[in-house]
Amino acid sequence: MPSHTLSLELACTPEEAARFAAVELFLADLASDPAAQPPGELDAVFGAKARETILGLVGHPEPLGITCRYDRDTGVLTLWAINGRPNLAALPVLLLWLYPEKLPIAYSVHVTERPELAVWTIVSLPRIEITQHAGEVLARLEVLRAAAPGPRRIDLVPTRPLPRADD
Question: Is this prediction's pTM over 0.90?
Fold first, then answer.
């Protein structure tokens, strides 16, 4: 399978950046301890059943394959792929949950060896859009921002049960 490069920079506060880091750390803990629980601050984001919700969103046991770094000087959270294998199905849904007040959000992914073939994903409350036309992304973001009445919370629940150990 080819390696993929993820490019996502999000202007945010340290508290907002900590949301993604908390999910990432919980999933890392889970790899070594099947009974691991997410930190309590994620209950405010994912509700009373944060563990089940997070695992359902990322498709556990599929690895997230994404890590983050927050630059306090610039106020930018950067996400990138680990080992070239980001879970591209989980990322837009995690962004919906973690950053509803920041929507729409756009990011690009490309096969590492072919950066000219970037695919852009635009995540917004009404839809998730995918395009290969980088020139359309800014205009599309402006249209979605103008149409949005303001920040809203979206509540999604996993539609399938989590796999059991005996499955």
Answer: no
